[in-house]
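Could you help me review a protein record that somebody else here produced? This is what I was given.
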Amino acid sequence: MPSPTSAIVAVGAHLPTGIRTTEQTERRLRDENPGRGLPVGLIRRMTGVDRVHEREPGEQASDLAAHAARRALADSPEPVDLLIFASASQDLIEPATAHIVADRLGLDVPVFDVKNACNSVLNAVQVAHAMIVSGQARRVLIASGETPTSAVRWRLADRHQFVRSFPGYTMSDAGAALVLEAATAGGCGIVDLAFSAASHHWRIGTLPTGGSMHPRDPEATYFDIDGRGLQRAFLALGPELITDLLARRGVALADVDLVLMHQVAEPHLAPIAERLGLGVERILPTVAEHGNLASATLPIQLRRALDDGLVSPGSLVLLVGLAGGISLGAALVRL
């Protein structure tokens, strides 16, 4: 009897129409910090990001997730029996944001949240796949709503604070959704997944608010990230997670039709891709046009690749996730 697996049968993306250009970001920083001598053009030169997406006032992470989920469910309207909200963002500490998304969608199914910074969606795929293969679910909706623009620091105490806040200026709000359902191995579906972590790096990038360390500190509501340290940490990772994943499935990198990879800054893309054993020419670039989309990056890239005809049913796609903490993940998927 063929082995069970799960397949991605629908992909939804929601990019807010509100746009903040990098020039507007720098202008606001200069206006709110007169006399600090903030350099003109630095963000664009250092990151390659032209613009970011901003949600409407009053929109929550659950709203962005629900927008994307409706699009995914319109493409695959059969009932789901589980909803996973997967995001670095959340509406509230409690209850799980998945409940709010389910309420917005009118769903009466079990729900829970999965959170692992920018790998939240990829880890949710891991969980959904395991639950489908084990028979605990048949069709799973994964919905993500990212609202990192809430944590951008505009008023700066000094240059050091500007440097630690820098990665936040290129982060975008976004929504994304996937529907996974039971399938038979050998056709379309999740071929394999692999994950690793180097958790001693957790201090490199934080958003401290709301936890037991900083329950009520207003200063903890902003990103505090060592951007160069984060890049060095990822460059210290070897290619083994990805090369081993491909090897155990007898797949050569040349057999992969497209690589989708989380992107923080354009100059970081090539060195990290090469360190992981991936040719940058195989990677779909999105960070210049859309900024850092956090955990929504991979499904939004997949939606774009499908819409642009870069992949189609039968294509073999490698999804590569990078996240603060730090963690690395990969999923080999036959569409």
Observations:
- The chain has a mean pLDDT of 96.
- The chain has eleven helices and 13 strands.
- The first strand starts at residue 4 and ends at 14.
